[in-house]
Amino acid sequence: MKALVYTGANSLVFREEPDPVPQADEVLIRVEAVGICGSDMHAYHGFDSRRPPPLILGHEAAGHIASGPRTGEPVTINPLVVDPACPYAIEGRWHLSPTRQIISMPPRPGAFAELVRIPVRNLLPIPKTMPIAHAALAEPIAVSWHAVRIGMERLHQPLAACKVAVLGGGAIGLAAALVARLFGARNLVVGETNPLRRKTLKLTEDLVAYDPGETAPYDSSIDLVIDAVGAGATRAAACRMVRPGGVIVHVGLLPGQDGLDIRKITLQEITLAGVYCYTPQDFTATVEALCSQRLGSLGWFEERPLAEGASAFADIDGGRTAAAKIVLRC
Fold first, then answer.
1. pLDDT of 260 above 70
2. Domain total of the chain
3. 98 inside domain
4. Residue 318: helix, strand or coil by DSSP?
5. Which one of 127, 147, 195, 247 is most buried, counting C-beta atoms within 10 A?
6. CA distance 119 to 99
7. Model-level pTM?
8. What is the C-alpha separation between 41 and 23, in angstroms, rounded?
9. Of 176, 140, 132, 169, nearest to 39 (Cα)?
């Protein structure tokens, strides 16, 4: 099969790789669309020890089943592979299981390839009429769905009555804004430093976006802040923006611990919630919302051939794309 292989820091090669061999309870998926995630970029820069080269990255994937009795069925992939007998899985929090594996981390090659192996239980069917690239958005949107849901559970009032701010206009931040709007948020802003992405937020989903580099609005006035970047600057901004008794949801995964105002968090009883991935229920709910077209126009991503994946990574790195997400097509 053809695959886009991470071979070292800032290096990707499109080349022939052996076809994966499905194990017990697994099938092969012929990948047709796979998104580039921020974690893929982190690995590409050589910053993720969990993803040593050479490795096939990519976990935001959709396609058709290529082996077994369901061959030909269109599906989207939940990339978190967990032992269903694990206590965390039994209580519904598969994403916290110590047995957790994810495609794009050893021992599971990822989906920047024509084929990927995955347990049957990790597949969710999609309508044949659904664009396959939309199905590849299920995984990142599920992350945002989980983040907004956790934030809502920690608020003391309906989301419709809250001021909500999302920091970061990439796929996770943009999707978090869309999910928050779906859940009833009416007073909603997105902070994004890239002017191309701010334009995308406005033109594709009619979201209010501001440049946090030029202004620092909303001090101590926001009920729910979702930090979809997770940098020192955004952690500091979240602490500055949140009101007394408010909630910060930290979903970004950049390294470091700086930026948190522990004094304000303590004295003003700020709830700080770290969130990671999603539950199976979050993923299923996301797919259902996508199938019923309840998450906006989805006009914020760009499609490119898998063979041009290296240039797509370089364009993301250089801030040369207005898209919040690039989806590679196989």
1. yes
2. 2
3. yes
4. coil
5. 147
6. 14
7. 0.96
8. 29
9. 140
Q: What are 2's strand-pairing partners?
A: 16
Task: Say which residues have a Cβ less than 8 Å from residue 43's Cβ, sequence separation at least 6.
Answer: 6, 51, 55, 57, 104
292 is a domain residue: no
pLDDT digits (tens, 9 = 90+) for 35-63: 999 999 999 999 999 999 999 999 999 99
pLDDT band at 315; cut points 50, 70, 90: very high
User: What is the DSSP secondary structure assignment for residue 18, as one 8-state letter?
Assistant: P
Q: In the structure encoding, which two tokens stand for residue 18, read together?
A: 């052996």
Domain housing 96: 2-137+298-329
Closest CA to 180 of 210, 199, 208: 208
CATH number at residue 152: 3.40.50.720
Residue 233: which of 180, 193, 181 has the closest Cα?
193
Identify each DSSP E strand in the chain by its residue range.
2-8, 11-16, 26-35, 55-56, 60-65, 74-77, 80-81, 101-102, 115-119, 123-125, 163-167, 187-191, 209-210, 222-227, 242-250, 271-274, 301-305, 325-329
Q: What is the dihedral of CA 280, 121, 41, 2, to 10 degrees?
A: -160
